[in-house]
User: Which sequence fits this backbone?
């Protein structure tokens, strides 16, 4: 039986898991039923799903914990998978809207995965208005990151509606089996293990000077209140950074990519800077209304991919940068300029490291946070950063599955002690889709963030564009094959109170 040992970063997602802080990521995929679809379309799909017994990596990976001196668990292949457990069926009282769908996804995201099985679940959801249905897939973060998750998503669908009719369930689509890391690995003999350990030490020793220089540069910034590199644990305390409980909230928002790119061009910044500025503006208003906005700016931990383009593995290949969100700045133009400057310094800092030092840098950077979670003091100390904001690039053409068009895809991510809110964005077919995942107890009325994100975008357009577009994302007609906007966005009026940059922001 083939196996591969988890690296320390992937293992950390397992060791910090608890009932209140499950470490899985999810994806809400909204589809439109094919024209003329029979009434039992979803029943047939469910039956086919549970009868399909072929599995591709990583869907057939199961954890096996070590019983030797090496504490790191390993992935093993398991083809004896109980699909009645992994594949589920839920229905909303028709006609189900975005709010009802968000409440269901919040409940699904609240439940930990069974780590004695392959760590994934799939729920088919019917009862959505506008002839739609949804599929919610969640997988443990030790098994997958955002970039590899998007690759799996694209591989399991087709850009051609006719070809999509014969596509198998997503767990039968994956990297070629030869890509399984353990197949071409040396035999697990003592000699080979020793040789691998020596090589690893050699690589780490070569990267020590760069690591010392990187962290030395950070230490020089401590106490510096000027603009530039944001250092870890210099973030203010906020309501976002306390202890969390089991239940989750989930909300969504969607903007046309053309609108965001136009703003990025006008502001002379990147698309990621615009996303951060939208989040910063929304958070500033959300916290102001609750009299809990810190005087210092909130900071964001931003995962960036360091995975080579030809790497088909599904494990984590990421590091972090930390940047300001400008929540202490009232003027939208000044806020985005501060964000742009902060992100540029952070990227330059990480890019100064050699590739072989990236994993060690990330582990050392995250070690204090991991230790707080392992020791039970997470959420009781000053946060490393206030919120995680990810931006995952997705396909730019519409995708189909079994003849049904994918009209929107929203990511759900991890909430943990000290991080009560996570915002993850995903581009798809000309839209940027925001998924807000939060602790139900810490963030009452979290859905307002989706509304305030629309207002923050208009504020930025007013600052940079001569003719800003409306802040409200107009409802899209289901009859025209477009996804409807979130309930929060629809109700917003009533509720208003250079080549070197190779790192991809997740």
Assistant:
């Amino acid at each position: 039986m083939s196996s591969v040992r988890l690296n320390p970063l992937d293992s950390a997602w397992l060791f910090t898991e608890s009932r209140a802080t499950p470490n899985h990521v999810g994806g809400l995929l909204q589809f439109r039923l094919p024209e003329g679809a029979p009434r039992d379309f979803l029943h047939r799909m469910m039956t086919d799903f549970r009868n399909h017994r072929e599995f591709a990596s990583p869907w057939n990976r199961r954890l096996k914990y070590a019983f030797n001196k090496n504490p790191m668990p390993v992935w093993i292949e398991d083809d004896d998978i109980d699909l009645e457990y992994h594949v589920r069926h839920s229905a909303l009282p028709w006609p189900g809207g975005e709010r009802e769908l968000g409440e269901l996804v919040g409940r699904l995201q609240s439940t930990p995965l069974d780590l004695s099985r392959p760590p994934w679940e799939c729920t088919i959801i019917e009862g959505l208005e506008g002839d739609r249905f949804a599929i919610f897939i969640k997988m443990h973060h030790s098994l997958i990151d955002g970039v590899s998750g998007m690759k799996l998503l694209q591989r399991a669908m087709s850009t051609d509606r006719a070809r999509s009719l014969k596509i198998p369930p997503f767990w039968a689509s994956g990297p070629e089996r030869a890509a399984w890391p353990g197949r071409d690995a040396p035999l697990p003999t003592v000699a080979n293990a020793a040789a691998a350990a020596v090589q690893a030490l050699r690589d780490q020793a070569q990267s020590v000077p760069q690591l010392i220089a990187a962290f030395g540069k950070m230490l020089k910034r401590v106490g510096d209140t000027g603009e530039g590199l944001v250092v870890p644990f210099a973030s203010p305390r906020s309501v976002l950074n306390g202890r969390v409980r089991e239940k989750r909230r989930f909300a969504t928002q969607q903007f046309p990519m053309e609108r965001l790119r136009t703003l990025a061009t006008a502001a002379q910044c990147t698309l990621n800077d615009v996303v951060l500025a939208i989040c910063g503006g929304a958070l500033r208003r959300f916290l102001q209304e609750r009299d809990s906005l810190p005087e210092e700016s909130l900071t964001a931990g931003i995962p960036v991919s360091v995975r080579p383009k030809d790497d088909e593995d599904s494990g984590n290949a990421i590091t972090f940068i930390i940047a300001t969100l400008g929540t202490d700045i009232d003027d939208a133009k000044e806020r985005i300029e501060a964000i742009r400057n902060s992100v540029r310094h952070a990227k330059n800092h990480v890019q100064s490291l050699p590739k072989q030092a990236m994993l060690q840098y990330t582990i050392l950077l995250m070690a204090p946070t991991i230790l707080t979670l392992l020791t039970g003091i997470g959420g009781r100390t000053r946060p490393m950063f206030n919120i995680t904001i990810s931006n995952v690039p997705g396909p730019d053409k519409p995708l189909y599955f079994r003849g049904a068009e994918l009209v929107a895809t929203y990511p759900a991510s991890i909430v943990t002690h000290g991080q009560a809110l996570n915002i993850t964005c995903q581009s798809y077919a000309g839209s940027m889709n925001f998924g807000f995942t939060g602790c139900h107890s810490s963030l009452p009325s979290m859905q307002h963030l989706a509304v305030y994100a629309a207002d923050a975008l208009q504020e930025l357009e007013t600052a940079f564009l001569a003719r800003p577009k409306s802040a409200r994302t107009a409802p899209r007609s289901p009859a025209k094959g477009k996804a409807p906007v979130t309930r929060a966005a629809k109700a917003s009026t009533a509720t208003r109170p250079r080549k070197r940059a190779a790192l991809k922001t997740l």
Q: What stands out?
A: The two ends are 33 Å apart (CA to CA). The longest strand covers residues 87-96. The mean pLDDT is 80.
